[in-house]
Amino acid sequence: MAKTSSCQYIPTDTQKLGVAAIHGENITSIFKGKKDVIAVENVSFDIDQKKITAIIGESGSGKSTLLKLIYGLLEPHSGEVRYKGWLVPTRKDKLIPGHDAMKMVSQGFDDLNLYAKVWDNVASQLPNTNLEYKKTRTEETLKKLRIDHLAQQRVADLSGGERQRVAIARALINDPEVLLMDEPFNQVDAAFRDGLQHDIKQIVLETGLTVILVSHDPAEVLAMADALIVMRNGKIVDAGNPKDLYYNPKHPYTALLLAKSNIINATQASILQIESTKQVAIHQEWIDVEEQPNAPFIIKEIKFRGFYSEYVVGNDKINLHAIVKTKTPIPIGTGVNILIQDSISFSQ
Ligand code: ADP
Ligand code: MG
């Protein structure tokens, strides 16, 4: 029997064919309590293998719950999750929670032994039945995560970024097919994030690993993920490849999340000569301002952001945030015309 099937745990299950590697259908997850919380509400999704998929959304939107449902740590109240067509077993099906072909790196390094050496944290995941293999495989895994030089250090003495690499090495040493990560870059200094993201991408290319990660900061995953799942209030509001979602979001929330877009209503849009019956999104980089005395709008605020400035421009009915790259700023209070290069009109 293939190790990826779950029929060894759920004898009544039959394989569903013609669905994506990870397939969720009408999943609802409720936390029962004084007041029930519907953390995930009737979501369906498809996740391809050998790709990086990011689940993004604001805090409390249900991302971590969805990740746990995929791994089998939580039992959905209704609906089902399948891996390679087989139901993902949960606590009621097997003693040790978590799908055998998957590994999860949780938030906050709970699994790491802070006072043990890096080597031991990683090597301890392998049995002692073949010591030669254990040694070479541990070496190889530490090298892949670029932490071989830290092998003899205690995890407690490492930086957040290095600890994250140890946690990933530990998860990958047994060659899982799917790696699940909850907010993996949270504890990693901004300067080291690019490096870690690059290395994860490289591992996916080299080994065909499937990665699913959760993030509340979409900017950091736009460059990394092959596919995004956008969550809001327990629902999936958008899904697709990052570029499509950036330029053609279905939902204003996605435009706000991915592009910090200006979301305006139809009345405000008409001030800018944009016709629409619903909300409109204008990304900050789609707005140009042009100095002109007696113009209908003024510069209200300027935020220095380094290589660009963020201007707040508008009148008493509308405020827009615009990215401006000129070196000599237009002073606050100056009259300006607003030139809109592009905009998105929503149908909902
Ligand atoms: P996210 O990861 O997007 O921040 P979560 O999946 O952690 O969101 O949580 C979604 C919702 O479910 C939130 O309202 C949260 O408070 C609630 N929740 C999460 N875990 C529990 C739990 N163990 N008990 C009760 N409510 C929970
Ligand atoms: Mg979370």
UniProtKB/TrEMBL annotation:
<dbReference type="InterPro" id="IPR017871">
    <property type="entry name" value="ABC_transporter-like_CS"/>
</dbReference>
<keyword id="KW-0067">ATP-binding</keyword>
<dbReference type="InterPro" id="IPR003593">
    <property type="entry name" value="AAA+_ATPase"/>
</dbReference>
<dbReference type="Pfam" id="PF00005">
    <property type="entry name" value="ABC_tran"/>
</dbReference>
<keyword id="KW-0547">Nucleotide-binding</keyword>
<dbReference type="InterPro" id="IPR050093">
    <property type="entry name" value="ABC_SmlMolc_Importer"/>
</dbReference>
<dbReference type="InterPro" id="IPR003439">
    <property type="entry name" value="ABC_transporter-like_ATP-bd"/>
</dbReference>
<keyword id="KW-0813">Transport</keyword>
<dbReference type="GO" id="GO:0005524">
    <property type="term" value="F:ATP binding"/>
</dbReference>
<dbReference type="InterPro" id="IPR027417">
    <property type="entry name" value="P-loop_NTPase"/>
</dbReference>
<protein>
    <submittedName>
        <fullName>ABC transporter ATP-binding protein</fullName>
    </submittedName>
</protein>
<feature type="domain" description="ABC transporter">
    <location>
        <begin position="22"/>
        <end position="258"/>
    </location>
</feature>
